[in-house]
Amino acid sequence: MKTPVKTMLALIVLLAAFLTVPSPAGAVRGGKLIALTFDDGPGKPTEGLLDGLRERGIRATFFMLGNCAESYPNTVARAYREGHQIANHSWSHANLITLTGREVTEEFRRTNAVLTKNSGGAGDFFARVPYGNVNDTVRSAVEMPIIGWTIDPLDWKYRNAETVRQNIVSAAFDGAIILVHDIHPTSVDGALRAVDDLTAAGYEFVTVRELFRRRGIELQNGVVYRSAPPNGNDPGPIGPPVLSESIVNGKLTVTLSAEKGTEIWCTLDGSDPILNGWKYTAPFEAWAGITVRAAAAVSRNGSKSGEISVTLSNPRAEPPVMAVKNGQLILESAAPELYYTTDGSPADRNGIRYEGPVDLEPGTVIRACASGAQYLDSEETRGWFSGRGRFFRDVDPGDWFAEAVDAVVGARWLQGTGNDCFSPATTLFRGQLVTILYRMAGKPELTETVSFPDVSEMDYFRDAAQWAVSNGIAACGGDGSFIPGGTVTRETLAGMLYRYFVLEGTVPDRADAVRFKDEDEIDPAFREAVDAVRSMGILIGDTEGYFKPKSMLTRSETAVILNRLLSR
Ligand code: ZN
Q1: What does the pLDDT look like over 117-174, one tens digit per residue?
Q2: CA 39 – ligand 1 centroid, Å
Q3: Residues 190, 168 contacting (CB under 8 angstroms)
Q4: Bridge partners (DSSP) listed for residue 340
Q5: Neighbouring C-beta atoms of residue 24, cutoff 10 Å
Q6: Residue 453 and residue 189: Cα distance in Å, rounded?
Q7: How far is the CA of 34 from the centre of ligand 1 (A)?
Q8: Other CB atoms closer than 10 Å to residue 193's CB: what's the count?
Q9: Mean pLDDT value across residues 321-340
Q10: Which residues are catalytically annotated?
Q11: CA-CA distance, 433 to 474, in Å (whole number)?
């Protein structure tokens, strides 16, 4: 039962990973960043440029002229759709320092309006002034950050792709802004060749907005920025949102989270969250089968994460809590439906519907799950109502130690560890062992008082420790300490049992001379004890003839050994 559930979960995780769009290639914190910008378009060569950028998984920034954006609405829309930053290069490419402030403002305002309309929603623009000409009037009239450049390959002059490539590559540095014009085919060709060279040289191409964000620089309106060299800051690429499903008041609820400082955009109709999404503000109700697409963004125009696309399944119910009281099975769960089986078959919603306490026959394995319309069946809860009418949540009748555990717990020689558990794999401690021996002896009255620096009056093993030490069953440390938390190995157990049998007067006169393969590892001090308990059939070697004197005893092994004593 466990395996198919786990496999299914793994599959869902795997699918989610495949559906997540990875960050752009080479996106590493602290890497070399560079921004490629295209001016004076869009134009005829722009579509080919977008093809080339898409093939390479590169995002660029397009400083568009308003009048060109009006002529190429589909190209503007495509550039935005494909994740590039849309930016403003004025309406008419006028020399702005010859214009009045009001005229400058109008050049950019008109262009912003066309860019927003033709892109299908881009906003939050940056500006670039034609010819790089700027004065105080322009600075105050632009009302956006002004982006200059640091690498100018003079592509408009040379009109030679190879020259453009060389001029870009030879001048490249971490944090540079490259200026190219996407109205010349040679410029587009040269820029793409430079992209290949610089990518191979370890550069990560980012939009202008990402360049400054990754360097921790907040841009101000009317200020000119030309580059962003490394300065020790780099928050790294924006991580995609994380989606979690839960049941809130019986409804399937989706919660999204993302990095601080980002907004989450999402859609439920399968469309692009950045282009068509709504801004996530709070967990929302959804239903199984629906696909949530989401991306985190600092700005939807040029600064966003990869995308997640998750088709919702019903969440898994929490496993039920199982208990047995007065021979009746009790199941509890927050999920509305509970199912169980008592014939050993797996529990799922085809099992018996639980409506209230159920009488159990001794020797029954109970398997149960929680379920309900909104949930996937939970993982199973198992329990064993033993032949002696004891309930164990961590012992199965198929376990090699099951009968022994049931018997020794029934004889009150060993107790459970609370919460209906036996903890079979837990190791045994000296305090527990002397308590078992003391119980086996019938808790005789103490004949003398022994005190230990490490045993208090409150310790449950106090009487047992006194009895064991005063009867020579257990030894003390050099300072008289009892070391109740000390572990018990097979040979030390042999020693204590032997001395217990001596006290009881049941030690055989002669021990057999069978030898173990690991005979030499037995401490000579325990030699006689090991021989005696082996010949009594209490502590025998494993099927291959090893005694394993130094191996620590688990509670399950202890139960099996005690059960041999019990059935003597
Ligand atoms: Zn220009």
Answers
A1: 999 999 999 999 999 999 999 999 999 999 999 999 999 999 999 999 999 999 999 9
A2: 5
A3: yes
A4: 352, 368
A5: 17
A6: 86
A7: 20
A8: 18
A9: 93
A10: 39, 181
A11: 10
